[in-house]
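Quick one, T. Sequence first:
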Amino acid sequence: GAGRMVSVREGPNVRQDCDGGLVRGRLGGWVIDAFGFVETRDEPGAFDNTRRKGTTFQGFYASGPLFVIDAIDLYAFEQNRDRLPTSDGSFDVDRQTVGLRVRESWSALAIDAEAAYQANRLNVDTPPIEAYYFSTRFAYALPAPYISLALIWTTELSQGDRDPTDGEINTFLPPYPSGGVFGETTLPLAPGNLLFSSLALRLRLYQSFTLTPHFRHYQRASRQDGLYSLAGRPLVETNNTALVVGHDFGATLNYQVNQHVRLKIEGGYFESGDFLKQADQLDSTTYGAVLLYFNF
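Structure tokens:
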């Protein structure tokens, strides 16, 4: 799929692996995968990784056309993990996730939408989890010789904690989402309580240069919950009722030097919203980065 729910396991310096298996079958135009695996620990030697006890991930993923729709993805996952570490402690994770992704295109317009529902418990003594996630992406492209122009609108919503004071992580928690490691930044889906929307204009010249100015809007999904770090620690407590977290104006320039080398320059300005201003947490700021990628 899109990697929103399950992607490669990103470590601080290396991508981590797992032990498991996959069975694939075909039914008409549909491809159906059933899989199961356990996480492994990266050891310093070669071919000596050990299994991480108490971690299992299994489920199925089916993809195919339906009526006039180009592609529909259906999936159901179950994740079990003993003592998931967070900055405020660790919790046992036992979650079932079901979801649907729809992709369709009409000439220059393309749509990618996904919704997921999550249930079960973090601990046997806690109330059941009922969390949701929703994402849409609309792209309108205008191709022309030596140049292509695309207008892209993206929205993502991840549910926040129903009771931020109970010491548990009850936000939507995708099993293995895409990360922001190796210089590639993606919107983290968990922890939740974030409504994100973005409008970008992608200009591509001669297949080598791509310039993408953007505007991004961030706000809380619920006034009853704060904001979290990726480790599950509250970054800003719920001491005010403002919704808007901030706005981001910026641009990214990619230059594909050759098949092995790519240059990326990005920068922008983040304007703090009322939620951060009232919490006295973050002033408006500018940011920038220059990244050089080598692919061999």
